[in-house]
Specification:
The complex is a heterotrimer. Chain A contains 12 helices and 8 strands. By secondary structure, chain A is an alpha/beta fold. In chain A, α2 runs parallel beside α3. Classes of the chains: A alpha/beta, B alpha/beta, C alpha/beta. Chains in contact: A-B, A-C, B-C.
């Protein structure tokens, strides 16, 4: 049975270990990413998730509590008694209590997965899934610096959808302007933006969006000598969260800054959905802490890239060249 | 008893004379709205009376509604458009459960109970993208009349996708589409779809059939089917949709005890 | 001068004040004519509002409008100032349990630009600091912190994170980046207990699993340690219990006031004063003792008017339940001008109105109180409470006001309306009220009027 996730911060290997099939919703074939009329202030990504929930009431769907949009999206989706939706309380802080919350949420999720027909994993089976996932993540991370942006986005999507890794072709660095894209979910319908960037003389060398490289939280290899793999999974997954919703969100910048330096990034594209306050508010901080110019791009009410976005990208790259 | 309703909208003033004894609309008239709203309303009203060979003294009550209702100084009372549209549409279509009214610069969705009482409503009067203003802006840009524009939309094979939610930006987008060779008919249909989409976002989950469509924009061929597409249910255009507000205002003059 | 209950303009209050003085008005140290706030603090909005004509209302307004001055005075007297953010009602109870500590909500700065009619340029300054109009008016807090012209800079800043509204959370994070150190504490998103979990009852007829109560309790223990360190005294159970009892005194008084006003035939006090009075629950307007006196005065006035069957709004007014606070206070006057009256409210702080359990160990009780925040749990639970209170207050219509830019408003209105329609069948509208609603008044008025007409039409069947 497929279990759809709306966030990368819940380890898919936990679901796989329950003998269910995790799938990142933003990569799913049935994700309804088409133009959608939005009420004032509603985030398009959250709207797509809600529409998926309505169109597929029998699908198992895990929402994350990281933002108001998804928390209340969960409320909307379950308003008329949808039973297979789970709201995972993703803590915002990094306190001991928050860590305990995360751990207990994984346990609670596990119980729900069993109700869906899954089977509680043995330590060995969990360790096995963790090793497989860690290996795939490590290979994807290794491939990041040399992969073309669009192919890498595709490879990431395949990993999040199917749990498998296939190496995108490596490409030698050219003389395009190296950029990073940072922000919320960056789904396939919006990938043409990467082509627009390349056509304008840039190249995304760091996809630091929620669904990009940042989602490959550092390979958490379980201790093969023993120990409780669940403890290792809970700890590593919690400690790896690096996102704008955290308070304080220093882990995000701890993750981002060394990579910007290592890949000689010269400009940042802040990608966010209209209505996403958490990311939009990071624009001045990104400028201050990275010292890089930042281009704000908002996803509109549908897929694709608008002429307005093309103009902004072109102007941005002209200033960087 | 003859009652008068005046709907002082943002783009047009409409007026209706209603005979409560025969339950008939005796006369109706429409004029463009302007700056001197009171004068224009009065002129229209007098023209209506003259055409119906009636005097002011024969009108037992004048009720004003619409955006400019408070400027109609000679009205005996004012009632909001929500109540008036509900009453007017219910009179013409007693089975209506949802009313969609798209006017010159706003749109409304009104939910009715059996018997025509308003249960709930939603209004969008802060954004032109869900109103007739969008179509007007396009017509003006293309130096066409509203009617010609609407007629064109009938011939669309594949409505264009208008991505901008702001009318001002959408205008630029439309010019771009036309410059790229998009058929005008498709662009018109695309605008109609964009309006319908905004209205469906306003309606949310509160649409119960039968759905009736009223307001000046309901006269545009293609708008009703655009609404049907987004709402996934049949949408019927009420007869004489520009006048339902004024009719409802006239009916309000008789409603001292609520709904029948 | 006519002493019957009515609403006065600021100019009319000038005369009224003179009259009261002649009659021997007794005022606290922060008392005085209302007009001085317009002159001294440039609260120009006061000229657009209408106020209840009672001495109790005068005291309430003076109490509200002198808060910043009183905080500065407290600092000058050596008190410690704690800025508590987002949890709206729990941490101040803890802070006020310690001697010489005052707590206030910097979030409350959102009213400042509205009251000052934006002459303070706080909203523009926020935009220059990277937080534009797509965020809620709480963004005014950022430049207020930077320029220090409103509230004094707190000695300690405490902020809940997690199940809190995004725009506020983003603004608070920006504040930290600007150099204001914040003690963050985790607020989990409340959920009903699952099968097999130990259930903890919460105030407001709610429940949460024990595991969540324990988590919040652990967080509040951290907060209490920080508060104790600030005060140089241990915030032990005895102090906390005393603080809870004192907070409950305020809550009981407020409950009595709400019941008296909302259940009365003719509204004895206006909607505007009721909104302001309710806000005293969250941090006592920086003076817990004085907030009791203010509420006591309002209650006495309301009770006297009820006995005389007098009200500022007559019995024919449509009974409206109002959801969410308004940026522009003028909306409260407008409701009554158009024939409505308040019969109940959910200004996002209902958990600060409920009594904190006194029989439970105090930190656990506070954790339960914090978790019962309507904004922290499922929207349907908030809607259920609204439905119950609508029935209790015999509401005929519901207004859900939207705060421009507030992330929770994007979806909650539709959910609340859907629940209300299903459970009690009342007409409900969503109404966006910007910080200065002057240009929008015709549109807002039209919608309110339509709602009132709709409610009245339902009376006759």
């Amino acid at each position: 049975m497929r279990v759809f996730l709306t966030t990368p911060w819940i380890p898919a290997e936990w679901i796989r270990a329950h003998q269910l099939d995790p799938c990142a919703l933003w990569c799913a074939e049935t994700f309804p990413c088409h133009p959608s009329p939005l009420g004032a202030g509603v985030c398009l990504f959250a709207e797509w998730v809600v529409r998926f929930a309505e169109a597929q009431p029998d699908a198992a769907l895990i929402f994350a509590s990281a933002c108001d949009q998804l928390r209340r999206g969960f409320d909307t989706a379950t308003l008329h008694g949808r039973h297979r939706a789970f709201l995972f309380n993703l803590p915002a802080t990094q306190t001991p209590a928050a860590k305990q919350i995360y751990r207990s949420e994984l346990e609670r999720l596990g119980r729900c997965l069993c109700e869906l027909g899954g089977r509680a994993p043995t330590p060995e089976s969990l360790r096995c899934e963790m090793l497989k996932a860690a290996k795939a993540r490590r290979r994807l991370l290794d491939a990041a610096p040399s992969s073309p942006a669009r192919a890498y986005a595709g490879a990431l999507a395949q990993f999040h959808r199917d749990g498998v890794f296939s190496a995108p072709p490596a490409v030698a660095p050219g003389n395009q302007v190296p950029l990073a894209i940072v922000g919320g979910p960056f789904c396939a319908p919006h990938w043409p933006l990467l082509d627009v960037i390349e056509n304008a003389g840039g190249r995304v060398v760091l996809n630091a969006t929620e669904t990009g490289e940042r989602s490959l939280f550092s390979a958490n290899e379980p201790d093969s000598a023993g120990g409780n793999p669940f403890d290792a999974l809970a700890d590593a997954s919690f400690n790896a969260i690096a996102d704008a919703f955290q308070r304080p969100n220093t882990p995000l910048y701890s993750w981002l800054k060394p990579r910007l330096l290592a890949r000689n990034v010269r400009g940042l594209v802040l990608w966010h959905f209209t209505g996403c306050d958490l990311w939009r508010a990071e624009a001045p901080t990104l400028r201050e802490l990275t010292g890089l110019p930042v281009l704000l791009l908002e996803a509109g009410e549908g897929p694709g890239v608008s002429q307005r976005q093309v103009n902004r990208v072109e102007a941005f790259l002209e200033t960087l060249k | 008893m003859i009652c008068a309703g005046i709907d002082a909208g943002s783009r047009a003033i409409k007026s209706v004379l209603f005979d409560t004894d025969s339950s008939q609309i005796l006369a109706s008239a429409l004029a463009d709205q302007g700056v001197e709203q009171e004068r224009l309303a009065r002129e229209l009203f007098e023209e209506l009376l003259s055409g119906a060979r009636l005097h002011r003294a024969q009108i037992s009550s004048v009720v004003a509604t619409g955006y400019g209702r408070n400027t109609v100084g000679f009205a005996d009372t004012t009632v909001t458009e929500i109540t008036c549209q509900a009453r007017g549409v219910h009179r013409l279509a007693p089975d209506a459960r949802t009313i969609i009214e798209i006017g010159g610069q706003d749109s409304k969705v009104i939910s009715l109970e059996e018997g025509g009482r308003v249960r709930d409503f939603a209004m969008n009067d802060r954004c032109a993208a869900g109103s007739g203003r969008f179509l007007e802006a396009l017509a003006s840009r293309l130096n066409m009349s509203w009617e010609d524009l609407a007629e064109l939309g009938r011939h669309s094979k594949k409505p264009a996708m208008i991505s901008n939610t702001c009318v001002v930006f959408a205008e630029t987008e439309i010019i771009g589409l036309l410059a790229q060779g998009a058929p005008l008919a498709d662009v018109v249909a695309g605008v109609q779809n964009a309006i319908a989409t905004r209205v469906s976002a306003l309606a949310g989950r509160f649409v119960s059939p039968p759905v009736y469509f009223t307001g000046g924009v309901a006269l545009q061929p293609g708008m009703a089917s655009a609404l049907e597409e987004v709402l996934s249910c049949p949408v019927r255009v009420v007869s004489r949709p520009q006048f339902t507000g004024a009719l409802g205002a006239a009916l309000s003059a008789t409603q001292s005890d609520g709904w029948h | 001068m006519n002493n019957r209950p009515r609403k006065l303009t600021l100019s009319e209050w000038d005369s009224r004040y003179s009259q009261l003085q002649r009659e021997g008005l007794s005022e606290p140290s922060y008392g005085g004519p209302l007009r001085r706030h317009l002159i001294e603090q440039k609260d120009f909005r006061l000229e657009q509002l209408r106020f209840d004509n009672s001495p109790a209302a005068l005291r309430l307004w003076n109490f509200l409008l002198t808060e910043n001055d009183r905080l500065r005075q407290a600092r000058a007297n050596g008190d410690k100032i704690v800025g508590t953010m987002k949890d709206l009602g729990t941490v101040p109870v803890m802070a006020y349990s310690l001697p010489r500590v005052r707590a206030f909500y910097p979030d409350g700065a959102w009213w400042t630009p509205c009251l000052m009619e934006c002459s303070d340029k706080l909203l523009q300054q926020a935009e220059a600091m990277g937080i534009d109009a797509s965020f809620c008016p709480v963004r005014a807090m950022l430049p207020a912190f930077q320029n220090g012209e409103h509230f004094p800079r707190p000695d300690l800043l405490v902020c809940s994170a997690g199940a809190v509204c995004d725009d506020f959370s983003a603004i608070a994070q920006r504040l930290e980046r600007l150099g204001h150190s914040i003690l963050w504490w985790e607020m989990p998103r409340r959920r009903p207990p699952a099968a097999g979990e130990i259930s903890c009852p919460l105030p407001g007829h709610l429940a949460a699993p024990r595991i969540q109560v324990d988590a919040v309790q652990a967080e509040l223990r951290r907060v209490s340690r920080a508060l104790g360190e600030l005060a140089g005294k241990s915030l032990d159970d005895a102090r906390l219990s005393e603080g809870i009892r004192a907070a409950n005194q305020v809550r009981r008084l407020l409950d009595a006031l709400r019941k008296t006003v909302y259940c009365a035939r003719a509204a004895p006090l206006p909607a505007l004063e009721m909104l302001v009075a309710e806000m005293l629950a969250i941090h006592f307007c920086s003076d817990r003792q004085e907030s009791l006196a203010v509420l006591d005065g309002l209650l006495a006035e309301a009770q006297a008017r009820v006995r005389r069957d007098e009200g500022v709004v007559g019995p024919e007014a449509v009974r409206v339940f109002w959801v969410n606070p308004v940026a522009d206070l003028r909306a409260m006057n407008l409701l009554e001008d158009l024939g409505g009256r308040l019969c109940g409210s959910d200004f996002m702080i209902t958990h600060a109105l409920d009594l904190i359990p006194e029989e439970t160990p105090p930190l656990q009780a506070l954790a339960c109180a914090a978790l019962s925040d309507p904004m922290v749990g499922p929207t349907i639970e908030r809607a259920a409470r609204i439905a119950r209170e609508c029935q209790a207050g015999r509401a005929e219509a519901v207004v859900i006001s939207r705060i421009p830019g507030a992330s929770h408003c994007a979806r909650e209105g539709e959910i609340i309306r859907s629940c209300l329609r299903q459970q009690i069948g009342l007409p409900a509208i969503e109404l966006e009220i910007p910080p200065l609603s002057d240009a929008m008044l015709p549109a807002i008025g039209s919608r309110l009027q339509a709602l009132i007409e709709t409610a009245k039409s339902r009376r006759t069947t």
